[in-house]
Amino acid sequence: MDNSKRTVVVTGFGPFGEHTVNPSWVAVQELKKLGLGSEVDLHVYEVPVEYQTVQSLVPSLWKQYHPLLVVHVGVSGMATTVTLEKCGRNHGYKGLDNSSFCPDSQCCIVGGPDCIDSVIDMESVCKRVTASGLGVTVSVSKDAGRYLCDFTYYTSLYLSHGRSAFIHVPPIGKPYSGEDLGRALKAIVQEMLELLDQAEEKIHCQQHFH
């Protein structure tokens, strides 16, 4: 029976800077409490704010779980909305991580494309979640910030051929509670799965008619 379940991995980040508990991990833990329904096998992970850990952990998650979708969640101190990131970028990583490390190449994957888009239509997810009257404002962005968030996203997009997503959340209480953010993540990830299902059906139909 478990074979019929779809596996989804959602990650938040560990502490960094003034965030002794990272709001992204608070939001992901709230999502874990809510779950994604009986047909989805949800696994959550806290990712340290370290480039080298990301380089080994992200591939291991894909290898271990063979998930339908991996969603990474990070905090943006400037954000006041829950922000869906459309793409990850390969170059421009100059900020030091928690281990005071930065890749010499200042890029994620040497020789990789400059930018990789998610296969998920973030504009569509944003519209659908907004229309559902969630009470949390959702927006879309094309710049995940060239730090660990962007680095993680690009790495995942590269490994999954675009079957990843990244969501930036604001700090807790500015304006949303952890519970609010958990509800928002649930609604967003469910819409993403719905869109992936529709894309899958379309492919099957096309194969059927050719």
Automatic annotation (TrEMBL):
GO terms for molecular function: pyroglutamyl-peptidase activity. Its EC number is 3.4.19.3. InterPro entries: Peptidase_C15, Peptidase_C15-like, Peptidase_C15-like_sf, PGPEP1_Cys_AS, PGPEP1_Glu_AS. GO terms for biological process: proteolysis. GO terms for cellular component: cytosol. Pfam families: Peptidase_C15. Gene3D superfamilies: Peptidase C15, pyroglutamyl peptidase I-like. Keywords: Cytoplasm, Hydrolase, Protease, Thiol protease. SUPFAM superfamilies: Pyrrolidone carboxyl peptidase (pyroglutamate aminopeptidase) (SSF53182). It catalyses: Release of an N-terminal pyroglutamyl group from a polypeptide, the second amino acid generally not being Pro. It comes from the Eukaryota. It is found in: Cytoplasm. It is an enzyme of class 3 (hydrolase). Its main location: cytoplasm. The active site is at residues 85, 149. Transmembrane segments: none annotated. Removes 5-oxoproline from various penultimate amino acid residues except L-proline. Monomer. Belongs to the peptidase C15 family. This is Pyroglutamyl-peptidase I. It comes from Seriola lalandi dorsalis.
